[in-house]
Structures are given as structure tokens and as C-alpha cells.
Amino acid sequence: MNEETANSTRQRSRSRNRNKGNSANSNAGRQNAQSRGRKAAAKINPIEFWGDPELLPAPEEVVAQSGDARALLNSLGRPPVPGQETAAERWFTLVYERAAFLAGALAAAGELDQSE
């Protein structure tokens, strides 16, 4: 390698190193400026936010799960999806049963189920 090529290689290497340092410093500067502008999150008292749970009224009814989650929708007839009625029924059935299961789980979590 001749001397001119070696000098240009050194200069490129130095400029890369300088750029690396500058980008790290500029990112750190931006992060410090962002963190200085932020205020600490205020602590929220859950009773003030949600209210006192002791003041809630007692539930008047309990929830009974249906024997067939699809009964009402089946009474409307087959889904109007030409050529795909069977597949649509299958997927809708899965969605209805999952929704009924989740509703029952929520009722049980809130002690509103009829498991007495």
C-alpha cells in the first residue's frame, strides 16, 4: 500500500470514529432533555379513583348460565353467507360458546353466579 492510500484510509477511519461518538452523544443529549421535561407520575389513590367499594349496592339478582348459547341466534335461521353457511355456522358457534363461557367466568368472579 502506498503512503497516499494509507493516509486516506486513516482519515476515513477517524471520521467514522468521530461520527460514532457524535451520534452517541447526541442521543444521550436527547434522552436527557426528554427526561428533564417529564414530570413524575402522580400517585392515584384507588378509592378516590374507583370509589369506595363498601358504598356499592348489593346485587339483586344472580346470573344463570344458558344451556345453549346459540339458541337465540339459531332461531334466526342459517347465516346469510352464500356457499359458506356450514363453515359460518361452525365459526359463529365457536364465538357464541366462547362468549358465553367468558360471561360465566365474569359472573363467577363477581360472585353473581348461581352456584349455591
Instruction: Report the structural category.
Output: mainly alpha
Number of helices, counting only DSSP H or I runs of 4 residues or more: 4
What characterizes the major β-sheet? none
Percent helix: 55-70%
Low confidence ranges: none
Overall residue-averaged pLDDT value: 76
> Measured on Cα atoms, how large is the radius of gyration?
33 Å
- Give, in order, the helices and strands: HHHH
How far apart the termini lie comes to: 91 Å
Form type = flat
State the total count of DSSP E strands: 0
Q: Name the beta content range.
A: under 5%
Explain this structure.
- The model has no long low-confidence stretch (mean pLDDT 76).
- The protein is mostly helical.
- It is 59% helix and 0% strand.
- The termini are far apart.
- The chain has four helices and no strands.
